[in-house]
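HOLO CASE FILE
Compound: calcium ion
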Amino acid sequence: MLDLWVRQPIALDPDVARSIATDYLAPSGYDVLERSWIDRRRSPQEAALRSLGPSDLERLERGNPTAPDPVFEDLRRYAPNPNQRRTIAIVDRGANADHPALAPRIWRNPGEIPNNLIDDDRNGLVDDVHGPIVGFTDHGTMVAGTATRGTDQVEALLLDWSESVMDWASQVDYAAAAGATSLTISMLVQGRDATKRWLDIMDAHPNILFVKSAGNYRNDLRNERPDFAPDNFLPRNLRPNLIVVANALENGQRAEDATIGAPFVTLAAQGTGLMTLGAEGGFIPGDGSSNAAPNVANLAAKCSILAPHLTPSQLKALLVAASTPTPAWQGAVVANGIVDHDQALRLAALSNLMRQGKSLDEAAQMLDLRPAQAADLLARLQRAEATT
Ligand SMILES: [Ca+2]
Ligand SMILES: [Ca+2]
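Model generated. Tokens follow.
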């Protein structure tokens, strides 16, 4: 029943959301909803909410992935090119590119005519309109929805984890040729061979930022032998252009099953409960480090629009510097805490303004920061650049 979805930010009045949650959804489920609520409220947006539970509605109110990111939109005016788009390559099992919220945020191959069974651009792949992918899954749609949340300036290019049409290395070459500046991978990279292949790919593409999910295995990478199950090998390696992301809950605490361990796991971000897109349309609450990694890839892409001069390793340092250390994350991740979305965007904008020759005071004023705050942020960035 989610086909009624329309691509509009859902601005729910808090009282309406509460009444939907408490009066209609919580007590008696969908029958009451169908009769009394849908009859009264016929807008498609509201109809699309039918499949969501009360807590999901509250989450959606706070974290609608289609709604414009207000801080990013505000800071974008200071970017060297405010209309720049960033392309994130997504290694997964496909996303529903026709989801109304995703369609405008999916990379399109300009040389390929869809569904004519012809390789129009002669790149070796037939009908690769959105990348070398066929089909879609919930998991991939969740990842793509989160990777592109909050703005049309960030788009997803879909790579195929299963390598059914092209091997990983060739696919990443393909993404690089298409202009992708980052890649997010929320799959389990098992075994030494697969791990080596991905490390070689990262080394071959130093200008691409790779963002990897840490895993949900309730383990600490500091304590493990390399051959210990689960064979989640990739996060156990360090690369300047690799960020490994642990899963945080909505309140910033560690997810119970989060894989952790500095220096391998770089930082934490919300995955569990962060609203994203469902494969059949509409919204779903995402889960796990699979959803936390694209959350960070999305933030990194926005930062890189605000500060295009930053290299992958500088972006990584920026996200670490913009994290808020808490006792629960001490030693669990390099940043000792969860990444602060707004702080990261402000730090990126600050870095760009300073690079353009603004004084610290001028830049701070433009960003509504106190000069001492701006100075502190820059000092944290320098420390992070020296240590990550
Ligand atoms: Ca083609
Ligand atoms: Ca074609």
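CASE NOTES: Residues 14-63 form one domain. Confidence is low (pLDDT under 50) at residues 1-11, 24-45.
CLOSED: yes
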